[in-house]
Amino acid sequence: MSDTARATSESETPPAVYDATTLGKPRMFVLGIQHMFAMFGATILVPVLTGLSVSDTLLFAGLGTLLFHILAKGKVPAFLGSSFAFIAGYAAIAPNGEAELLPYACLGVACAGLLYLVLSALFRAFGPARVMRFFPPVVTGPIVICIGLILASSAIANCSTNWIVAIIAIATIVVCNIWGRGMVKIIPILIGVVVSYAAAAAMGEVDFSGVAEAAWVGLPFSWDNTVFSLFGPGFDAGLAITAIITIMPLAFATMIEHIGDISAISSTCERNFIANPGLHRTLLGDGLATILASLFGAPANTTYGENTGVLALTRVFDARVVRIAACCAIVLSFSPKFAAVIGAMPSCVIGGVSLVLYGMISAVGVRNLVENHVDFQKSRNVLVAAIVLVLSIGIAYSAAGAITFEVSGIVISLSGLAIGSLAGIILNAILPGKDYEFDESDIAEEEHALTLQ
Fold first, then answer.
1. How many domains does the chain have?
2. Transmembrane stretches, by residue range (predicted)?
3. Which of 240, 260, 361, 405 can bridge 305 by disulfide, Cβ–Cβ 3.0-4.6 Å?
4. How far is CA 63 from CA 11, 80, 291, 436, 443, in A?
């Protein structure tokens, strides 16, 4: 590559930042705020759809993220927000968001979180190299691509409520990221949210009535909404067992998604987080965060693709920035008025921002395939990727939206992503010609690179 070409390439792609303190504390705080806003749209949508508390959700998204970072040695720049995978479980137990039934659904989610601990123990016992044979890039790459593409429909639906505002959000992000300088270039999401929210307000798209009525300070959750409130004279053991049996299988899909998310974050940050700190630690953190949140009446937690999109855009990979976002979410969860402001954010703003972020997720999946030199001249690789893509996307956008079957009177519904992922893993395991070897030697190189930052 010539010096001119190299200079052009470097000017187009900002350098990766692994130590955000070099940017200064004020900029670190603004970057943290950006991560917080990036997760807001999807995180608050889950309680809105299920009937759970928005403030409770923010509190345990923040606490769950900090717990995850403690268990992951503070290395993985991941934010944990509300998981969409369990919405079907909440709907099965509390179809209309009944307050008295939601704690039973949360009990089922807490038990599902225990499965994370089991898989974490397997990674710990057998090591990532043996387990990761079942999750090579030819499987995880298409899974990550599908995560973004499946989410894309919700972004389009939100944008459709007011395309003018959505386009303002998209255009602001693109302009700031491509032509911005300094801090503007690395906080395009936050600027996009602020500009488009202001535009929506000017157009009369925002209803601030709930904001005026909300208190400035209040507790994020009440005891009656927790799982602990169930254990008394009115405890329904049959409903509890039903909730556990119905919801626990959903964890298999979310655990596979977790591996895909960590693969995406690793690819984005150019760090092998699967090996160091290890999937056993990230799974443990995700599982314990889910258990903690659900016990106190908040949605299940999961590593968030939206924040991976922010990482890809800003190239600021310092996990401390994400922890700032977590702390801000915790503080703001004690303000019902702030929750009302966020709740008043029109869906067109969320849609415009999400459209960019979901696209970035799929792009990271493509990058995972390219950088790992997946050979698509081999028929077995083409077949594995094809099965994952078609099943995941095809089932997700089918009339049913899932594969549903009955076992001992219990109806189980598996999402397209779960079916596609399982099919890809099984097909990759049985087909001959596997050429992927998980290289743990990358850890030493990464640690050496970190000492030079």
1. 1
2. 28-46, 52-71, 78-95, 101-122, 134-157, 163-180, 187-206, 226-252, 321-343, 349-370, 382-403, 409-431
3. 361
4. 38, 9, 12, 37, 28
Neighbours of 183 (CB within 10 A): 15
Query: What range defines the domain where residue 235 resides?
Result: 12-431
Partners of residue 17 on adjacent β-strands: 316
Residue identified by tokens 């960019």 is 356
Contact 248, 381 (CB under 8 A): no
323 within domain boundaries:
yes
Nearest in space to 246 (alpha carbons), one of 380, 444, 109: 109
Radius of gyration of the chain (CA): 21
| Percent of the chain whose predicted confidence (pLDDT) is above 70 | 87
Closest CA to 108 of 259, 258, 241, 222: 241
Candidate from 124-128, 320-324, 395-399 with smallest mean pLDDT: 124-128
Tokens 């208190």: give the residue.
Answer: 215
Angle at 355 between CA 139 and CA 56, to 5 degrees: 90
Kindly state the tokens that stand for 293.
Answer: 């949140």
* Separation between Cα atoms, residue 108 and residue 166, nearest integer Å: 37
Is there a contact between 64 and 43 (Cβ–Cβ < 8 Å)? no
pLDDT confidence of residue 214: 81
Residue 437 falls within a domain, yes or no? Answer: no
- Single-letter amino acid, residue 152: A
How far apart are the C-alpha atoms of 262 and 368, rounded to whole Å? 12
Closest CA to 394 of 417, 411, 427: 417
Rounded CA gap, 33 and 225, in Å? 28
Residue 235 pLDDT exceeds 70: yes
Residue 445 lies in a domain: no
Distance, CA of 362 to CA of 370 (rounded, Å):
13
To which H or E segment does residue 313 belong? helix 305-314
With respect to residue 439, please indicate whether it lies within any of the assigned structural domains: no
Name the H helices within 229-346: 237-247, 250-269, 279-295, 305-314, 319-333, 336-343
pTM: 0.68
Instruction: Name the helix (H) or strand (E) containing 402.
Output: strand 402-407
The span from the CA of 38 to the CA of 309, in Å, is 9
The residues facing 407 across adjacent strands are 410
Structure tokens at 50: 């299920």
Q: How many CB atoms lie within 10 A of CB 246?
A: 21
- DSSP-derived letter for residue 15 is P
Residue identified by tokens 């130590």 is 19
**163: amino acid identity, one letter:** W
Q: What's the residue count for the chain?
A: 453
Residue 276's nearest CA partner among 132, 129, 139, 72 is 72
Give the DSSP H/E element, type plus range, for residue 392.
helix 379-396
The C-alpha atoms of residue 302 and residue 305 are separated, in whole angstroms, by: 9
Contacts of 125 (CB under 8 A, 6+ apart): none
The whole-angstrom separation of Cα 30 and Cα 82 is 22
